[in-house]
């Protein structure tokens, strides 16, 4: 039977190591052990944390995108541990978005890509967001408009421009993700963008780009595409 954390020397226990040396010295597995709090009869919290981390190929990104069902498939992980892990990664994503909002200035439309990648990469459903810019191209706010396939029924100009009018911005960037990982625009992506550009012209609100976010696939280094860069639409 494996040792329990209480049986380890103080300097081998994650909580004591953090208290004496700081969180930076802890490994990924040790941090996960602190989150889940306890192990099983057979495994200490640290051993179970290693199992969880290895289950997702020692990738924090894969772990951060795991569903509750994915987590609960691991022996020893029940609803309490699974929801604790999900909550931590959800907070981390919100922190990244909040920090970006405070300091993000868009020098050119495609420079919004890192922000949208943090927001959308790895999502299992398509999400459509808009970025509202001030006159100096500082990001004022991002808003989720819809979840689901991108088409007229899910992305209506009324919803898109309501946010722009509420915050008094004259420029917006569109962004959505492709859960498949391939950011190549579909005919529906292009048609939807054209419709929104036309609606924006009537309201005096300029759409400056539409970015599609994927994730890196074998043989394809692209993580996003810019419809403006591709020249598929006149913005």
Structural class: alpha+beta
Please give the number of β-strands. 5
Poorly predicted ranges (pLDDT <50, ≥5 residues)? none
Q: Topology as H/E string?
A: HHHHHHHEEHEHEEH
**CATH H level of the largest domain: which superfamily?**
Cytidine Deaminase, domain 2
The main pleated sheet reads as:
5 strands, mixed
Identify the strand order in the major beta sheet: 2-1-3-4-5
Q: Any idea what the CATH architecture of the largest domain is?
A: 3-Layer(aba) Sandwich
**Range of strand content:** 5-15%
What's the tally of helices?
10
- Relative helix content: 40-55%
Organism: Lentisphaera profundi
Pfam families: RadC, UPF0758_N
Protein name: DNA repair protein RadC
Family: Belongs to the UPF0758 family.
Structure commentary:
Strand 3 (171-177), helix 9 and strand 4 form a beta-alpha-beta unit. Helices cover 43% and strands 14% of the residues. The chain has helices spanning 14-21, 28-36, 45-55, 60-64, 68-72, 79-103, 113-120, 157-166, 187-203, 227-230, and strands spanning 127-133, 139-147, 171-177, 206-213, 224-226. It has 2 domains: 5-96, DNA polymerase, domain 1; 106-230, Cytidine Deaminase, domain 2, CATH 3.40.140.10. It is α+β, with helices and mostly antiparallel strands and 235 residues long. The chain is elongated. A 5-stranded mixed sheet has the order 2-1-3-4-5, with helices on both faces. It contains 10 helices and 5 strands, in the order H-H-H-H-H-H-H-E-E-H-E-H-E-E-H.
């Amino acid at each position: 039977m494996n040792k329990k954390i209480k049986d380890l020397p103080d300097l081998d226990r994650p909580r004591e190591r953090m208290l004496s040396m700081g969180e930076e010295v802890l490994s990924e597995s040790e941090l996960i052990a602190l989150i889940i709090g306890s192990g099983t009869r057979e495994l200490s919290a640290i051993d179970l944390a290693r199992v969880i981390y290895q289950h997702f190929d020692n990738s924090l990104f894969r772990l951060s995108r795991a569903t509750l069902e994915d987590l609960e498939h691991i022996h020893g992980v029940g609803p309490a541990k699974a929801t604790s892990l999900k909550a931590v990664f959800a907070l981390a994503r919100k922190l990244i978005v909040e920090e970006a909002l405070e300091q993000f200035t868009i020098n050119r439309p495609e420079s919004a890509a890192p922000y949208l990648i943090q927001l959308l990469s790895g999502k299992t459903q398509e999400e459509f967001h808009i970025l509202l810019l001030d006159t100096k191209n500082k990001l004022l706010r991002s808003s989720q408009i819809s979840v689901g396939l991108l088409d007229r029924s899910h992305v209506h100009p009324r919803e898109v421009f309501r946010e722009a009018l509420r915050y008094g911005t004259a420029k917006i960037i569109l962004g959505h993700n492709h859960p498949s990982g391939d950011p190549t625009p579909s005919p529906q992506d292009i048609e939807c963008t054209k419709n929104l550009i036309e609606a924006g012209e009537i309201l005096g609100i300029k759409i400056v780009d539409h970015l599609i976010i994927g994730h890196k696939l074998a043989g394809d280094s692209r993580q996003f595409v810019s419809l403006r860069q591709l020249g598929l639409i006149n913005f």
